[in-house]
């Protein structure tokens, strides 16, 4: 197992390098680059140029020489920005300098916000923690018992109507469900039960500890439910199918023939094998929800999280934020893949990836 893990760790290096290289190469051909945006803003707003030359946040909107939209800007100003942000060097050199910095986890500063990329991500992290952590926990707490009950009562009326509800939940887009929740429970047309926006109230700092917990839960209820709906449906069906597959195996029939109770058969024999794929997939599922912050959900509930950060960085061509977050999330995804394999072995020690690899 140790050799297998070592190979997987070593494979992270070329995989991550390939991810960064492909995305860096693609950005070299994306139209509407930063210099065109600068030119458009300068020609539309006279104070933008003063902000840039004054060293404000907009100074980060780096310039790439040769853009048609740069005509009319002072050439020395463009050359200064190119030197400041490294665009006076060839793309290959810039790429390897970037990778060298990322190896030491130096992600630089955002070109638009006068803040380091790490601090910017940490600033947006509470929203992602709220959406990812709680939606994952709720999905597992509901889906596993429901999936087991559906498997035990397969083909009954309970299984039929719950399957209908699950299919509807899976078919409804998360953002549409979020709008429905707002209309029903956030003062849209019916009840004003939950707040409309944000994760905390304006007087959050003045509340007691219990008051802060209640206020946080009050604000988080609707966005967490909106994010949970699709993962809840998928996990329930996965749990049911896993149990059905195990229930029909020979060892279950043998256990029943020995006179074991149905509960003992179900939770003493079937549960461990059936939950293998569900439990082992927890790290990947959590990462997917945690860093898959929906820009639509965040926009609907006025939450400033990683989803909105990624969207704004892509629109503004904030390359330090784009590549810094891509590097971190890509690295974490690869590590989570290894953790998923370790979870398989932890749940079922009979699995030996070393022999399978051989």
Spell out the key features of this protein.
transmembrane, mainly alpha, 0% strand, MetI-like fold, 17 helices, 358 residues, transmembrane helix
What does this structure look like?
The protein folds into two domains: 31-106, no CATH class; 118-357, Orthogonal Bundle (MetI-like fold), CATH 1.10.3720. It has 17 helices and no strands. It has helices at residues 2-27, 34-44, 46-53, 75-85, 91-103, 117-152, 157-171, 174-185, 209-247, 250-257, 262-274, 276-280, 282-290, 295-300, 306-316, 319-347, 353-357. Helix 10 runs antiparallel to helix 11 and helix 15 packs antiparallel against helix 16. The protein is globular, with a radius of gyration of 26 Å.
In short:
Helices cover 72% and strands 0% of the residues. The protein is mainly α and 358 residues long.
């Amino acid at each position: 197992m140790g050799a297998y893990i070592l190979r997987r760790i070593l494979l992270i290096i070329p995989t991550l390098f390939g991810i960064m290289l492909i995305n860096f190469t693609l950005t070299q051909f994306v139209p509407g680059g930063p210099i065109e945006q600068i030119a458009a803003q300068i020609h539309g707003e006279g104070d933008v140029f003063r902000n840039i030359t004054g060293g404000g946040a907009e100074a980060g909107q780096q310039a790439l020489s040769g853009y048609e939209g740069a005509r009319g800007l002072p050439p020395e100003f463009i050359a200064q920005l190119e030197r400041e942000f490294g665009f006076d060097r060839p793309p290959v050199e810039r790429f390897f300098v970037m990778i060298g910095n990322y190896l030491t986890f130096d992600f630089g500063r955002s070109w638009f916000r006068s803040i380091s990329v790490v601090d910017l991500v940490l600033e947006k992290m509470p929203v992602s923690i709220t959406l990812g952590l709680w939606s994952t926990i709720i999905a597992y707490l509901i889906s596993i018992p429901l999936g087991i009950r559906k498997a035990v009562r397969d083909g009954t009326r309970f299984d039929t109507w719950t399957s209908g509800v699950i299919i509807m939940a899976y078919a409804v887009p998360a953002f549409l469900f979020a709008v429905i929740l707002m209309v029903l429970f956030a003062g849209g047309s019916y009840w004003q039960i939950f707040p409309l926006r944000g994760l905390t109230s304006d007087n959050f700092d003045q509340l007691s500890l219990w008051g802060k917990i209640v206020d946080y839960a009050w604000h988080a209820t609707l966005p967490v439910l909106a994010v949970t709906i699709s993962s809840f449906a998928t996990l329930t069906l996965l749990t049911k199918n896993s149990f059905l597959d195990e229930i029909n195996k020979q060892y279950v029939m043998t256990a029943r023939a020995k006179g074991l109770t149905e509960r003992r058969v179900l939770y003493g024999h079937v549960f461990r094998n059936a939950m293998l794929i569900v439990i082992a997939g927890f790290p990947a599922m959590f990462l997917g929800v945690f860093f898959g912050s929906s820009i639509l959900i965040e926009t609907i509930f006025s939450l400033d999280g990683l989803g909105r950060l990624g969207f704004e960085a892509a629109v503004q061509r904030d390359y330090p934020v784009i590549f810094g977050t891509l590097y971190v999330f890509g690295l974490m995804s690869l590590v989570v893949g290894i953790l998923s394999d370790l979870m398989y072995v932890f749940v079922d020690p009979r699995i030996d990836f070393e022999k399978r690899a051989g």
